[in-house]
Automatic annotation (TrEMBL):
<dbReference type="InterPro" id="IPR036910">
    <property type="entry name" value="HMG_box_dom_sf"/>
</dbReference>
<feature type="domain" description="HMG box">
    <location>
        <begin position="4"/>
        <end position="75"/>
    </location>
</feature>
<feature type="region of interest" description="Disordered">
    <location>
        <begin position="124"/>
        <end position="146"/>
    </location>
</feature>
<feature type="compositionally biased region" description="Basic and acidic residues">
    <location>
        <begin position="124"/>
        <end position="139"/>
    </location>
</feature>
<dbReference type="InterPro" id="IPR009071">
    <property type="entry name" value="HMG_box_dom"/>
</dbReference>
<dbReference type="GO" id="GO:0005634">
    <property type="term" value="C:nucleus"/>
</dbReference>
<dbReference type="GO" id="GO:0003677">
    <property type="term" value="F:DNA binding"/>
</dbReference>
<keyword id="KW-0238">DNA-binding</keyword>
<dbReference type="Pfam" id="PF00505">
    <property type="entry name" value="HMG_box"/>
</dbReference>
<feature type="DNA-binding region" description="HMG box">
    <location>
        <begin position="4"/>
        <end position="75"/>
    </location>
</feature>
<keyword id="KW-0539">Nucleus</keyword>
<protein>
    <recommendedName>
        <fullName>HMG box domain-containing protein</fullName>
    </recommendedName>
</protein>
Length: 146
C-alpha cells in the first residue's frame, strides 16, 4: 500500500497530539471532538508561543516533503522505504511523531509514553448526522423563545 499521508498543517498535527493527550487525561469523561477542537484552537491561538506553533508547522512541512519523495518512489516501484524521521504511532493509526527522540517536543515524548493512543469511539448519541443535530438545536432555540 501507499505511504501514509502526513498532516496537512502544523495545526492539524497539534490537534491530533492534543486530542490524544486530552482523551488520555480524561478517561472517564465522554469525548466530544467538536468541543475538544474548540478548546485546542484556543490553546493554539492564545496560549502557544510562536516558536511552538513554528515547531508544528515545520514538522508538517518536512513530513509533507518526505511524503512526496516516498510517494514518487511508491508510484515508480510499487513500494517505498519507511521514513527514518517520522512515524505514526499504533501501527500507523495514531498521531505522527518524530522517530528520533532528540527531535521530539515534550508533548510527543508524553504521548509516546502512553499505553495506547487509540481510544474507543464516541458515544452513539454523538454520532448523529449533522442535519439532525442542527434540527434539534433549532427546536431547542425555538422552545427557548416561547
Amino acid at each position: 500500500s501507499a505511504p501514509p499521508e502526513p498532516p496537512h498543517s502544523g495545526y492539524v498535527l497539534f490537534v491530533a497530539h492534543m486530542t490524544t493527550k486530552i482523551r488520555h487525561d480524561r478517561p472517564n469523561i465522554p469525548h466530544n471532538q467538536p468541543l475538544v477542537v474548540k478548546e485546542i484552537s484556543k490553546i493554539w491561538q492564545y496560549a502557544m508561543s510562536e516558536s511552538d506553533r513554528d515547531y508544528y508547522s515545520q514538522f508538517s512541512l518536512e513530513a509533507q516533503e518526505e511524503y512526496k519523495e516516498r510517494h514518487r518512489e511508491f508510484r515508480a516501484t510499487g513500494g517505498y522505504r519507511p521514513s527514518k524521521r517520522f512515524k505514526k504511532l499504533e501501527g500507523g493509526r495514531g498521531p505522527w511523531v518524530h522517530v528520533c527522540e532528540s527531535e521530539r517536543n515534550d508533548l510527543e515524548r508524553e504521548i509516546i509514553g502512553y499505553d495506547t493512543v487509540l481510544f474507543p469511539p464516541r458515544p452513539k448519541h454523538m454520532e448523529k448526522p449533522q442535519w439532525e443535530i442542527e434540527r434539534e438545536e433549532a427546536l431547542r432555540k425555538k422552545k427557548g423563545r416561547e
